[in-house]
């Protein structure tokens, strides 16, 4: 497995841990999702179990999907490409949604170190997923183009 794929898997698994801690913290101190003021979450646990998530974690369904995609990245074929593309998209999505949560103001004041650390780790791991997912996606695309050229007789 390529170095980019290993880092993608590691950043994805790290994000899963950070988001899980984020869910526990959000449910403890009541931080419902409120992306750009549009989600208006009410019940943190219900929102996590359905489709809104919390201010510090995406919904459970996305975390399960992310775990499945992470397990596919190691495959050199179609499933590996699907896992890589899926994690890249999720990384971008997670970074954007984390930055759109009002908890960003609270996190950057560092008045609650738990909230600040989870927020920063979520953002860091999401960005790493996006970057290394993109790099691995490009590597796989080039590898597929090379193998297609060889099979067509160009080489």
Q: What's the quick description here?
A:
By secondary structure, the protein is mainly alpha-helical. It has 6 helices and no strands. Helices cover 74% and strands 0% of the residues.
Notable features of this structure?
single chain; 155 residues; mainly alpha; 6 helices
The count of β-strands is 0
Alpha carbon gyration radius: 18 Å
* Overall geometric form: elongated
Determine the strand fraction and express it as a percent band. Answer: under 5%
Number of domains: 1
Distance between the termini: 25 Å
Model description:
The chain is mainly alpha-helical and 155 residues long. It has helices spanning 3-29, 44-49, 60-72, 78-99, 103-109, 113-151. It contains 6 helices and no strands. The longest helix has 39 residues, at 113-151. It is elongated. It starts with a helix and ends with a helix.
